[in-house]
Amino acid sequence: MNSFIIPFWSSVFDLLGRVSIFKLVWWLLPKSFKTYAMVDAWVLGNFAASIIALAIVCNSSIAWIVVPIILYAAQRIIEATVYQINVVFFDAYRWAKSGGLSSPIKGYRRIVILILQNYAEMVFWFAALYSYSFLHFKESDTNPHGSETLKTFIGSLFHSVETMATLEPTFVPADDFGRSLTIIHICVGVFVGIVVLGSVIGLLPQRPSLDEYFNRPEDAK
């Protein structure tokens, strides 16, 4: 019996990749708009939206405004993570299985830049989630009701960056919801930072060093 693990997970993430707002927008767009530039605009637009969303969540308590933002933030984190998993692990496999030689990538430099934008975007989306869920975190055992610092733009952003970079945030979860959010954040951060960037950044075209240039025999003449 042949191994089934790659086809299985390829099918799972293919399905997850189809259940996204971007796929709906892509399906609704006219054919002339389905370009690489449209994908670039989508990623850049979501990055800008994540910054604006964090500012709104930190400064508003109106549920009908904040709750849709939080739901979109969660959806966008899932969408970006699934997309990156497909790019790294399964797109080339699916393309080869369908008869192609390789996955159609516009350029590796472009992919790295888009992934870095996604990484920065996720920092802001998670900061919005932390700001909204501040009651599920505490600074110490003497402050079990959470910290108001997470309700500020810089405070929640700092906590998001700190969680993704150090894995030892100042504000610790006060309950299982906070623990679950932190686990997801750390897993996503480690995956994007190590697996995705580590897999793609090595494919960037390399420029010759000065040592290589001056050590060529023809340069010694």
Overview of this protein structure:
The chain is mainly α and 221 residues long. It has one domain. The protein has 8 helices and 2 strands. Strands 1-2 form a two-stranded antiparallel sheet. Helix 4 runs antiparallel to helix 5 (108-132) and helix 5 crosses helix 6. The radius of gyration is 21 Å and the shape is globular. The model has no long low-confidence stretch (mean pLDDT 82).
Q: What's this, in brief?
A:
The chain is mostly helical. The chain has helices at residues 5-18, 21-28, 36-59, 63-97, 108-132, 153-166, 176-200, 210-214, and strands spanning 137-138, 172-173. It has one domain.
Categorize the overall geometry: globular
**SSE series:** HHHHHEHEHH
Strand content: under 5%
Low-confidence stretches: none
Quaternary organisation of the protein chains: single chain
Helix content: 55-70%
DSSP summary: helix tally: 8
The profile of the biggest β sheet is: 2 strands, antiparallel
Number of strands: 2
Strand-pairing-aware structural class: mainly alpha
Mean pLDDT: 82
- Strand arrangement in the largest pleated sheet: 1-2
Radius of gyration based on Cα positions: 21 Å
